[in-house]
Design brief:
By secondary structure, the chain is mainly α. The chain has one domain. Helix content is 52%, strand content 0%. The protein has five helices and no strands. It is globular and about 45 Å long.
Length: 99
């Protein structure tokens, strides 16, 4: 499903996915913390897949990416925030009972 979101909201998805799987790309492995746009398309999909497979918990460290990037649709600014910045925004939403 993440790739569907990427096709709808991004350009260059195929090129990026092919590059990610090449010997020169970063592949599927990721380390949490970077802004969403700093991950390649395969890493983005893997983050969402791991969140989903681990029970789709709001307490999962991957959840801020899902809630504030994926579910925000075409709003660009969350895609440039680090995970710590996303967590701060999510905490603010929770204080206002919006999550």
């Amino acid at each position: 499903m993440t790739h569907v979101w990427q096709y709808r909201n991004d350009s260059g998805v195929m090129r990026s996915a092919i590059w990610a799987r090449s010997p020169f790309g970063a592949g599927y492995d990721y380390k949490l913390g970077k802004p969403w746009d700093d991950y390649n398309k395969e890493q983005q999909a893997h983050i969402v897949e791991d969140w989903y497979t681990n029970g789709r918990l709001k307490s999962d460290d991957r959840y801020p990416y899902v809630r504030l990037v994926i579910r925000s649709g075409r709003i660009d600014f969350p895609r440039t925030l680090t995970l710590d910045e996303l967590k701060r925004d999510l905490a603010d939403l929770r204080r206002r009972n919006l999550d």
